[in-house]
Amino acid sequence: MIxxxxxxxxxxxxxxxxxxxxxxxxxxxxxxxxxDDRLGGILNQCIHNGFGLHTFKEELTGPEYADRFISQLTDxxxxxxxxxxxxxxxxxxxxxxxxxxxxxVTIEAGAVILAMGCRERPRGALGIxxxxxxxxxxxxxxxxxxxxxxKCIGKRVVILGSGDIGLIMARRMTLEGAKVLCVxxxxxxxxxxxxxxxxxxxxxxxxxxxxxxVSRIYGKERVTGIDISEVDENRNVIPGTEIxxxxxTLLLSCGxxxxxxxxxxxxxxIDRVTGGPDVRDDLETSAEGIFACGNVLHxxxxxxxxxxxxxxxxxxxxxxxxxxxRDHLSYxxxxxxxxxxxxxxQYISPKEMEDSITVRFRVDKVYRDRKLxxxxxxxxLREQRKNIVKPGEMEQVVLLKKDLGSASGTDTIRICLED
Amino acid sequence: xxxxxxxCIRCPMGCALRVSVAGDEVTVTGxxxxxxxxxxxxxxxxPVRTVTSTVPVTGGQIPVVSVKTAGDVPKDSIFxxxxxxxxxxxxxxxxxxxxxxxxxxxxxxxxxxTKAVGIKD
Lengths: 419, 121
What we know:
The complex is a heterodimer.
Chain A: E1 2-9, H1 13-24, E2 30-33, E3 49-51, E4 60-61, H2 62-75, E5 79-81, E6 85-89, E7 94-99, E8 103-114, E9 118-120, E10 136-138, H3 139-147, E11 156-160, H4 164-175, E12 179-185, H5 194-201, E13 208-210, E14 212-218, E15 225-230, E16 243-246, E17 249-252, E18 256-258, H6 261-265, E19 290-292, H7 303-321, E20 332-337, E21 340-344, E22 347-348, E23 356-363, E24 367-376, E25 379-389, E26 395-400, H8 401-404, E27 413-418
Parallel strand pairs in A: 1-2, 1-8, 2-5, 8-19, 10-17, 11-12, 11-17, 12-13, 20-27
Antiparallel strand pairs in A: 3-4, 6-7, 7-8, 9-18, 14-15, 15-16, 20-22, 21-23, 23-26, 24-25, 24-27
Helix pairs in contact in A: 1-2, 1-7, 3-4, 4-5
Chain B: E1 2-7, E2 16-22, E3 25-29, H1 34-45, E4 48-49, E5 52-58, E6 64-69, E7 73-74, H2 78-86, E8 90-91, E9 99-101, E10 111-113
Parallel strand pairs in B: 5-8
Antiparallel strand pairs in B: 1-2, 2-3, 4-7, 5-6, 6-10, 9-10
């Protein structure tokens, strides 16, 4: 069987940063496997600006950000395969892929980095009643059709869901000459970044209807209109509140789901809140030598954070291949409560961790004037004032090794919001 | 004195800014970096945006190339810039940074490519 030191599944922002970092940590035998016909992943269609301020200290568009990392990869001579799909990963790090020139190939990997990204929640998962005419797209599909394939997808548009891609597409369609009638959001708050509401909706006078959803789609061949209704606190449509919009297009921006079919096949433990694998502070999953980073792990708002996280995964995978072994009994569970839905990582080893670790998390609704508290057992380690926290914006807290040093094996680390 | 509550759009942090205007005096608070102070000042005096879009490519590996204004343009000129972008086209190959439209919408700012497009095989 072919043996490679590090196999990275996915050549998007996470896979690219992981590969470069693994190389810089000393690994040379690295292979990146990408199913599309080019590297860069979703960045290729994210033509708007706002990327790279943390990483490159300048404001780039998605394709420019991808190009920086692709250059870093090719400058180092790191091998990658395009048009190649991974069909299986085993918990013993055997990776099976196939493509048109080699057929089906299995590689034994010293370490595997999962960097498959995420997918959009499709219409079928939303339970919208009505026919299935043409003209209903997920926002990301629309983004690809417009920004990569150069297609015009509609003239009068309604958007359901206020995720960032939906907001970005509201502006994009407007600039392309379409009329975006409104963005309807089921929840009483937006799932997108406030800055995107400002520059994509407010700039163009596009209304954001919170606590509203699509209650009917009209049209058999093509969308001819939709009804939007208000919902109650249980997210049920309130009869009689429907507003009709004549439109030819409905975009859906209703959440992203980490793409973990391969992870599940490998029998790796999945966090039911994030939909991604459970990881330790070195980003290793429950399978030894298999690491995860980027949107396959949990959905990020910022590609810069994906790159940071993936760099650590690359470095840790490289150290693993070089023979570094961790004490698996020393891990403490990170528990979340009081409005915090999850944390990544889910486990931290006070003994093995680096001097500090950034723990990222999301909250379950909008909270104002709360304290973010971190406990080790019953001891409060950290308290930080938060004026506002929102589900649409990922939060983070830095934990220090010196603060966790006193932990005993039965302690847990708890992150919560308090009044 | 006038007060504005703005969301900084200079980076995805999206800091909540409070901008006070008293005559020629503009004070910005709530920013976490100097870019936020600049944004707040600019936004209440002469707001600007970067415009991004696509332009058709003849003979390219992909049908359109992504483009952006090389710098910020006045917010009022967004649709003037778009009019020029929408009537532009380019022939492959295209490199990142190639000028696609000069002086877009009369703003004095060029529109440049943000993606490389090779010649179709």
